[in-house]
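ingest -> validate -> predict -> emit
validate: passed (alphabet ok, no gaps, 158 aa)
predict: started
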Amino acid sequence: MHIQRTVTRALGPGETKRVTKEKAPKSDAGDRCLPVSPSLATLLKKWRLQCPATAFGLVLPNREGGILHHKTLYDALKRAQAATDVSRLDLMAFRHTFGTALIEGREADNQIARLMGHADTTVTRKVYTHAFHRNEGSLVADAFADAIFRSVDKASKK
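emit:
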């Protein structure tokens, strides 16, 4: 999956209301490719073919082809978690679980930084200090990923 843009709800200079908007990533490292399972890749490709073309090439556009409201994504995430008996996590927790799983799986620091969109390994080591100091393996992260992708695979076969 190629990540090229960032979606934010932060206030910009002179703004008084938070609105969802897209912007370029913070650094060149923010433009990156993320690995996805073959079943998830198939599911996303099928989904994208059903969606109208959008200005930003969004995989998950709203009905008008724009950016989905964050609550729409979060509600869908909650429904998927309930259907799979996976612990309830928000999108940032999913991101941190992914980063932690990479560290616990002994992925190279520079590869982790690249996949997380960090400018360099210093940022990665600062954000994930807790994970770098663990001695145990990544059984929890592996079970979490298996549960998610197993449910996506089942859904894609329906």
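Strands lie at 2-3, 6-8, 21-23, 32-33.
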